[in-house]
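EI: anyone free to look at a 675-residue chain?
SC: sure, send it
EI:
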Amino acid sequence: MNCRPFASRFLMAKTSVVAALFLCLPAPQIAAQVGGSGGEPRISSTTNPTDPMNTDERTKIIERERNLVVHVVGEDKQRLDRQAVVKLTNEERKTVTWQTTTERSEADFIDLPIGKYNVEVSAVGFFTGHTVADIQNPANMVTSEVLMERDPSAIDLDAADANMSPKASKEMKRAVKALKAGDLKQGQKRLQNTEKLAPSSPQLKFLFGYLYFQKKDFDAAQKYLSEAATINPRYSQALILLGRVQLLRQQYGDASKNLEKAVEGDPDNWMAYNLLADSYFKQQQYQKAAEEAQLAVDKGRRDGAAAQLVLGQALANLGRTPQAIAALEAYLDTAPKSATAPQAQELLRQLQQHQKIAAGASTAASETVIFKPVGDEDFLGDSKLPDTAWQPPSIDRAPPPVAKGAPCPVENVIGGAGRGVEQFVDDIARFAAIEDLLHERLDDLGNPTTKDTRKFDYAASISQPRPGTILVDEYRSEHYGMETLPDYFADKGFAALALVFHPAMRDEFQMECEGLGEWHGQATWLVHFRQRSDRPNHIQAYLVGNNTYPVSLKGRAWVTADKLQIIRIETEMINPLPEIHLLAEHQITEYGPVPFGKKKVELWLPKTAEVYMHFRGRRYYRKHTFEKYMLFSVDETQKDREAKHEQIGPGSTSPHKHKWWRAQNGKAASGLPRG
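SC: here you go
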């Protein structure tokens, strides 16, 4: 493959420049179905946003054709407050079908053949639910209900405060919604609004503690969680999170006291026992650690297996080597790819070796061996990049929660996202928008010390002059340049980031489906990606004079479970660039559907692109907001021919060769749109 470095093409005169990258994508309405014996996934169309058939007609047809409806409810028999993913497996036919639940918390399956189906439902914060559906007559509709049980290890943000006023309660619910969606900035704003109305609420204090825990600001987290536990001494969830923070801060005695209160108030929470066992182990109270770890294993069922790690360590230090070996083997069976697996394997090897030596010794007595704890060093390990309150948490240090036990159809997810990117590159010539720019300098806590705003005309073009080569160019109005922008930053290269999923680029990255998460209440597959060191980097580079500095990225994409559409991408640089004094760069781009009525197409285009940067001792935040999109169409021959010529700006191609369509406006006009 031959690709031009297209993501970050900068001129750096007075300071560095930073890339905030995005690519607009089409919105295929698809449901993934895997069938056959090792065949390729089949993608079948389910809806079409431009279909002239009205909603009532489509509903009647779906009602007539669907023959299985899966209702998903919580323990209170009410609809879930979030989207779930339903996996349907026919063992006899070897087929797997995926669907997401609707706002009614149900999933419809159409034209299923006769047979028995295993139904598996996954949602963040819940154990995976199971049932069996038997389709005996395709003409009859079968209804199946799946009861979802909450995962006690998941932090429950929904607990209400009965003493709050309706206004404060409403504002706190908005904060909870933002926190669930991972929008920490909006969540903090809503919590601060709530604090003005209900400053003494223990639930509010807990939510502040959770917010700062996610930000890795453990000082602030401990302050708020301590206040929550003081106001309500039986607030087990606050006590558990407080104990967890104190463990991370190596305050083991205080952690034990709070976790002892937590297990007393919530005796069925396995995570509380697991953390308490860890706190005892850190204080070399091995017998207590083993007892609490065993309780965690017993009460945690599937997830309690994680407590086998501290159980094995405690038993090893009690001299109960066979039991310790069994516990560690059980842990590695359930978590072979965890971050602590290599250390657990090393401890297991030492124990097995120690057992052989003891068995061959001439006397029954043996030397006491103290085994060090496994795990915290990896969780708290220093990041190479600054990871403080001024920017979002590092990609790998704050992974979003995923549904327990939800298998990820990794080939369908990555392949479906790639097909959307490929289709857009193949079909779309260029697009334009109005861009609003917010630029801020930040202090070390992320508070703005300066603020500047600007507005520009923005346009981008995408072309493929030959197979395997993708050219992305973007332009702005004449007022966009280093001499006119605040702090002399001239951002360029916004139209390339999602190309990591393009089939021509995908092999340059390691990709892993982390599981089923959610974004703004919508079920999403989380895909982690990282630039491979043995492959060329075509995504991003900094240009300083005549020197080029490639930037290797790692990141995470949120891909909708129903349409396999990328709705959010977050990236950061793997290593800093000390030679240009660039220590950190963190980018977040969010996408949303934009309909073009005249063209009868809906595209997923960038709504916002945010950039955090630490450069030459200063911290910066820049946010680009895009609106009033206009779409250009061009035939393939013309597109390839124009790509061979250097383009100076949006008007460098003859206007009569293109048409553009304003979003949500059916009237087309010729030429370059302005304003």
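EI: Residues 1-64, 362-368, 376-387, 634-675 have pLDDT under 50 and may be disordered.
SC: 👍
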